[in-house]
Known about the structure:
Layout: E1 4-8, H1 14-18, E2 26-30, H2 48-51, H3 56-62, E3 68-72, E4 76-78, H4 89-94, E5 96-100, H5 123-134, H6 141-149, H7 158-161, E6 172-180, H8 185-194, H9 207-215, E7 227-229, E8 234-238, E9 249-253, H10 256-259, E10 271-273, H11 300-304, E11 306-308, H12 311-326
Parallel strand pairs: 1-2
Antiparallel strand pairs: 3-6, 4-9, 5-6, 7-8, 8-9, 10-11
Amino acid sequence: MIPVTIFHCNEITLKSQIRFSAYPFIYFFDLCENKIKMDIFDSFQNQTARLAGFFCKPAALIHSPYQETIMTDIDIIWLNKPDYLFDFVGYQKTGSLFFRDRLISSPISFVPEPIYAHIRININNTIKLIQTELNISNIDNNIATQLANENGYSLFWNHRKNPNELPLIHIQDSSVLLLDKSRHLKTLEVIHRLLPTFKIGYGDKEIYWIAATIAREEFTWEPYLFASYGDCGALMHYDPRYDIQRTTPYFINAEYLLECVFRAGQDLSKKITAPVKVTENMKLFSLGNTDPVTKGRCDACKHMTCLNTTEYINAAIKEAQEIRLKNSNFKLVKCMRRRRPPKRRPKSIQL
């Protein structure tokens, strides 16, 4: 049994923690309670709300008590044992494993409405930051090719290598990542330095691969593209340990499947996308419109083909939903989709 530390910022009461006392391998760490002992908070004055949100994760990674850490969101549905990921050859080689986000591209001249600007990576600011940190006057085609090929092939640099390719607005899915801290001391130092003011992309999402690039420490992207649970569904990832003929779904970034449920078995899909190997010369695509229910981008099946969902996957999702609904503290959140349907009133009866 691998130990688990749950990081938070004044969010989990002592009463709630006592409920886990029967599990000696589960620990809690209050980032805000321990801030006096942690130099990271020197530049985090009055930013409790920031640490109670996305940036709890990189702060937790920096102060993880484990040399080898799997950082995971609480809404992940695991379809295999998390620690098997340590066996992946890419992790063993570099001491890291990062997962890819959905393929969504945008013209570089496109300026999103201010309310949406924070959810996409700022291409120009990212390149400018990396150039400055690496003391490079210009990231030309040769340097972009080198940076792309060093780490299991990074799709971020495709546009820099080939201006005819539209730039991607999401790169990393940070719901799960693996890091051997002893082999990425400089990466952690860069994260530490960038963390207080980092605003590139959606929350903490892009900080990890950017920091590793700046640190010039090897890291590994998963060998496959993102996968989709349903044509417009939740983000899913295949087992990186095996080739394309043997790999199976490994975990789901469950999002709406857990955060917005009001009954077990809700929103189960009969389709999942097939694994797609990432290669340097692959033709990228961009997903389609946003689904009004899941808020996931559609047309995944069109670009990647779809397979029938194996029964154990839907069974695992349903079980996770049942656990979520049994939680006495559970509240249906607005999150990113429909609200709970209103109760039907009985029709009046005239006598």
